[in-house]
Specification:
Elements: E1 8-11, E2 14-20, E3 25-29, H1 33-43, E4 50-51, E5 57-59, H2 65-69, E6 73-74, H3 77-85
Parallel strand pairs: 2-6
Antiparallel strand pairs: 1-2, 2-3, 3-5, 4-5
């Protein structure tokens, strides 16, 4: 895998790009609730870390922050909300 693709996971011939911020929020693109749950399953994150409102996302468990952020592109909390709102 190329260095620029480190945060992409193949899913049904489509890539999920994973994003996190410095507040432990975790989302993916293409953004959808279904893809959020698939992303969590790929990363081994339990459903209890899912937040449906006001902006659906997963939180990164505290003890797994470094491990999971190494698999994501780190963006700002504002960018996370923008991705969610535009989908």
């Amino acid at each position: 895998m190329k260095a620029e693709d480190f945060n992409k996971h193949l899913l049904d011939n489509e890539y999920l790009t994973l994003y996190s911020d410095n507040q432990r929020h975790l989302i993916c693109e293409p953004y959808s609730i279904k893809n959020l749950h698939i992303m969590a399953n790929l990363l081994g994150i339990k459903h209890c870390w899912f937040h449906a409102k006001p902006y659906p996302h997963y939180d990164i468990p505290k003890r797994r922050i470094k491990e999971i952020q190494e698999q994501t592109q780190i963006i700002s909390p504002r960018d996370i909300i923008q991705i969610i709102k535009t989908k």
